[in-house]
Amino acid sequence: MSFFTSKLFSQPETSVIGIDIGSSSLKVVQIKKERGRAILQTYGELGLGPYNKLAIGQIATLAPDQYASVILDLLKEANISTIKGGIAIPLKLSLISIIDIPKVDPKDERSVIELEARKYIPVAISEVTLDYSVIPQVDDTSLEFIESDNNEISEREELKKRQKVLLVAI
Description:
The structure is a single chain. The protein is 25% helix and 36% strand. The chain is an alpha/beta fold. The chain has 2 domains: 3-89 and 151-169, Nucleotidyltransferase, domain 5, CATH 3.30.420.40; 91-149, Dna Ligase, domain 1, CATH 3.30.1490.
């Protein structure tokens, strides 16, 4: 189970939400885990334009307070009934790669991954947030790592603080 999935479904609560902030709209889904499968419970979308005195469908950049307002409106509109979930980072602001590393002691895994990831990440490791998920194999270990700019993570963290939602994954 990946870090992301394990964080979302680690508690007895079976429903989680996902929030995606696009350039012209904000989307939300609520899913539940049932017999090992994800089941869609509800979803919704709100245009960002009207929150910035623009037409629906127009690209709008909002202040954190405005995004928080849109999220609250959308949670009500979509009848979201859980407070636990995650918020998406745009793919264009992330780097996803699959790398191979030798089998190592689990306590040394993180440092080996960071060392190997430096070969692929064009900025200092301190400027990004690095997460990974191991892909099981026999001898060597393949893993998918995901890197996102810390500024983007900080913006999502700021939104997380303004909500009455427990976002456990960004």
